[in-house]
Amino acid sequence: MPKDETQEKEPRERILEAAATLFSTKGYAAVGVREIAELANVNVAMISYYFSGKAGILKEIVLRYFDSIKAIYDKVLAENYPPETKLRKIVDELVELMKNKTIFCKVAITEMPFDLPEFADFKAEVARRHVEYIKLGLKVFEIFPENQKFSSIITPAALSLIFSHFLFYPIIPKVWQIEIDDEYYDLYSKTISTLLLDGLNGVMKQFINNKIEDGK
Amino acid sequence: MPKDETQEKEPRERILEAAATLFSTKGYAAVGVREIAELANVNVAMISYYFSGKAGILKEIVLRYFDSIKAIYDKVLAENYPPETKLRKIVDELVELMKNKTIFCKVAITEMPFDLPEFADFKAEVARRHVEYIKLGLKVFEIFPENQKFSSIITPAALSLIFSHFLFYPIIPKVWQIEIDDEYYDLYSKTISTLLLDGLNGVMKQFINNKIEDGK
DNA sequence: GCTTTAATCAAACGATTGTTTAACTATTTT
DNA sequence: AAAATAGTTAAACAATCGTTTGATTAAAGC
Measured between alpha carbons, how far is residue B17 from residues A103, B66, B77, B101, B107 in Å? Predict the structure, then answer.
């Protein structure tokens, strides 16, 4: 059997994929650089060489994730559909993204809740860059365009709703005896879309009622 | 100023709270035992003495979280309300739980997606113990009592929806300029309840339609 | 008051952490 | 072909990891 190393991806990409795989199952902090290097089939020093440190890998993973999100966002918003259709398309695209880039998405999402000093500036910058986008989106979808509190509740709710499957992933096959295939993800996408859209409709009604009660 | 050490909680509890605080912000794997001991104002050896290791702390945190969930579950299920009211009460109680035990809940939830070897058996056991409960709940709430796939989608969706605020917590104040107080949590609880209930109603309709399409 | 048990401590354990160094090979550039 | 750059390596770096040891103090049992 000839060595297929020539057909292997470049070292930098191998490191990124190996790291994403390990981060997604064990979490960023629980993974050592030697473990990554071994899985990527490179020398440990290559991590600092290409990413100037372990933290650099996570930063690139998170950036790639946000770029994917942005691409979906731009694509759907450019189309000329009614708000509800746009929202359903967004959900479909996000589920599709997670199917194709599962480990990258899972890493970006599961590391969000944590506040490590070495990522403080990075996170602030990433958050800043995406604020306008989130707000623009809420305006396009015609969801509480002017209410800060509702936005701060709805946006995380929608995102964690869409990604819920991946947050609970290692638990799900242990609890329910189901086969997770393309058919399952179709049902998943459709169900989450409906849950989100019908739910948002209800919240909109509640929002309007609250306004009336407040005498506005 | 006299030393108030006598009024301090017992060492074991201090360790638990210090660890929960640190785990919730930095994640389990990123926190060292010396950091915990320092914050708890105890000697490092006390961690192994009381919890037989760092992993023991996380196990107790997770167990306490599940006990709280179970208590809420038992309480609401024992009451005689229609399914929708029960579900809304569950959400209210869960939000209340998160307000009072924020760091414990956040730790239990944020560590769920990870699979560390030292917790493999523990997680399997915890999952096993709660399968019957989840299934019983879906039956009581009259939500797809017999459909495995829908259950496996809806249950994680509902949970991550309810807990979404805490998953995104460090991000939220950076993106939206809002004051997070009791009033905010009231709105949060009401909004999430509506989103979930109206969303579930929509999914139920979809479920019934699918059955008809399948010719059942 | 003696003995036993529980609790706490500083110190050291070996293992592992992320990163850097300096030598080396391979590839480009000139 | 010579020089320069890029890529890769094993080894060592200091720092930190979680845990254990053995001594010491405090509390409880009799």
Answer: 32, 17, 30, 10, 11
Residues B26 and B75 in one domain: no
The answer to whether residues A81 and A178 belong to one domain is: yes
The per-residue pLDDT for B168 is 83
Residues B123 and B162 in one domain: yes
Same domain membership, residue B81 and residue B41: no
Q: Which amino acid is at B160?
A: S
Q: Let me know whether B207 and B110 are in one domain.
A: yes
CA–CA dist A214, A206 (Å, integer): 12
CB-based contacts of A148: which residues, under 8 Å, 6+ apart?
B176, B177, B178
> How near does any CA of chain B get to the CA of A103, in Å?
12
Print pLDDT tens along chain A (216 aa). Answer: 333 433 478 999 999 999 999 999 999 999 999 999 999 999 999 999 999 999 999 999 999 999 999 999 899 989 999 888 888 898 899 989 998 999 999 999 999 899 999 999 999 888 877 777 777 777 777 776 677 888 889 888 988 888 888 888 877 887 788 888 888 988 998 999 999 999 999 998 888 887 666 654
What is the domain range of residue A73?
A: 62-211
Do B87 and B17 lie in one domain? The reply is no
> Which CATH number fits the domain that encloses residue B206?
1.10.357
Closest CA to A136 of A192, A197, A90, A202: A90
Q: What backbone phi and psi angles, to 5 degrees, belong to B169?
A: -50, -55
The three-class DSSP label of residue B99 is helix
d(CA B57, CA A23): 22
**Number of independent structural domains in chain A:** 2
Q: Which residues on B lie below 8 Å from A201 (Cβ)?
A: 198
Contact indicator for B99, B38 with CB cutoff of 8 Å: no
Q: What sign does the dihedral B183-B187-B193-B194 (CA atoms) show?
A: positive
Q: Do B172 and A156 touch (CB under 8 A)?
A: yes
Which of A130, A168, A178 lies at the smallest CB-CB distance from B149? A178
